[in-house]
Design a protein that fits this description.
By secondary structure, the protein is an alpha/beta fold. It has 9 helices and 16 strands. α3 runs parallel beside α4.
């Protein structure tokens, strides 16, 4: 399979560079999903378009077990700072997380598997909006799952490029890989007035200062120290003149967790933290936007990927993923079937390793056939076991 993948390297690079030059953000993946659907139809797949708004579901094979392969397609609202022949042509949008590569490699795996006689079915999930959510707070994985993308699936796998790991290596292990995530927002209201007469006001910044201290004490003083979690403030907005104390302050942030028990405890402790506002004479509104669950790789699926990696790439090129509280909505698909995600080494040799979401992020394209082979060979092994 690795030999076959290298034979289609030029197509993989062409797909990847085309997607990189024309990045689309969120659910607005009209060009990308159209190209993906057309390519899959040419390969002989049964294709459903507009699943989860702009997602594509494609299946090949008959009867038997079903393995799903997920590839996210969306870009980020980032101005690219690279100087390459395939630099983004959509100013202010950039594939800074490697989803262009994920899409290209999944198409490559689809091409290779279309030529195989499979004792079961392979289903490809080309997903929009992994990086953000829609107006109802739902990501692409949630939308696609709601529309039946995972019905009848026995296992689901995915990969993610890793600019800190050398080309030719993968990282995989069972258990927690990424944390769960919620967003939160709050409005703290006091009583506005002249900056020279603070005693005539209820200063919302003063109220916020106490809330910040309380929020920063949640992880260090309220949670079990063996349950990793984060409560972070991302923005504070309030005021409009240097000598005016405003009526209100708006604050937003994110929280991360590794278990549902910790998730609920953070919500409880955050509400308590904001209660100090009332004690000091103000009022508040606190809202949570529920995100994705922690991503927990299934033991059996992880072992299958690990064995495939060792056989294709050599035992020394398979290691463990460095755990992170970064978010990844692939966990939504794993609510419906056991699954696992592995990291694919894409480090550019001799270049500074710009990490994910950096405006100079790029990959070593020699990794494309490796990721393609890993997806195709793993899928085959699941159906042949």
């Amino acid at each position: 399979m690795l030999k076959q993948s290298h034979a289609i390297s030029e197509e993989l690079i062409e797909w990847r560079r085309d997607f990189h030059m024309h990045p689309e953000v969120g659910f607005e993946l009209h060009r990308t999903s159209k190209i993906v659907a057309e390519e899959l139809e040419k390969m002989g797949y049964r294709v459903r378009r507009n699943v989860g708004k702009t997602g594509v579901v494609a299946e090949i094979g008959e009867g038997g077990k079903v393995i799903a392969i997920r590839a996210d397609m969306d870009a980020l609202p980032i101005l690219e700072m690279n100087d390459t022949e395939y630099v983004s042509q959509n100013k202010g949008a950039m594939h800074a997380c490697g989803h262009d590569s994920h899409t290209a490699m999944a198409l490559g795996a689809a091409l290779l598997l279309s030529k195989e006689k499979l004792p079961g079915r392979v289903r490809f999930l080309f997903q929009p909006c992994e990086e953000t959510v829609d107006e109802e707070g739902k990501s692409g994985a949630q939308r696609m799952s709601e529309e039946g993308a995972m019905e009848g699936v026995d296992w689901v796998i995915a990969q993610h490029v890793d600019p800190a790991t050398p080309v030719g290596a993968i990282r995989i292990n069972a258990g927690m890989i990424y944390g769960g995530v919620d967003s939160w927002s709050a409005v703290i209201r006091g009583k506005g007035g002249h900056g020279a007469y603070p005693d005539k006001t209820i200063d919302p910044f003063f109220l916020l200062a106490h809330v910040i201290i309380a929020l920063n004490g949640i992880v260090s003083r309220k949670l079990n120290p063996f349950d990793p979690a984060v409560v972070s403030i991302g923005s504070v907005n309030g005021g409009f003149a240097e000598n005016v104390i405003p009526e209100e302050v708006r604050v937003t942030g994110t929280l991360r967790f590794t278990s549902e028990e910790t998730h609920q405890q953070i919500h409880t402790e955050m509400k308590r933290a904001f209660e100090v506002v009332k004690a000091l004479g103000g009022t508040y509104e606190l809202n949570f936007q529920i995100g994705g669950p922690p991503m927990l790789n299934d033991q059996f699926v992880s072992e299958m990927i690990e064995t495939t990696g060792k056989d294709l790439l050599g035992e020394n090129n398979v290691g463990e993923i460095e755990k992170s509280l970064g978010a990844e909505d692939f966990g939504e698909f794993m609510k419906h079937a056991p699954g696992a995600m592995f990291n694919l080494g894409t480090q550019k040799k001799g270049h500074e390793a710009y990490l994910l979401h950096h405006p100079k992020f790029d990959i070593d394209e020699r990794a494309l056939p490796i990721g393609t082979a890993m997806l195709a060979e793993t899928a085959k092994r699941f159906l042949n076991q």
